[in-house]
Amino acid sequence: MRMNEFEQNLLFAAVTLMLVTTLVVFVVQYVRGRGRGDDD
Q: Which residues fall within 8 angstroms of residue 16, CB to CB, at 6 or more apart?
């Protein structure tokens, strides 16, 4: 069964959003943890 263009774009957007969100959370936690260590 072949997905139409709209479904493909929706799937791509969902996957991209999930990856970007995960990456942002990881970076924020890393920077926050490192900054906290440098301040003290």
A: none
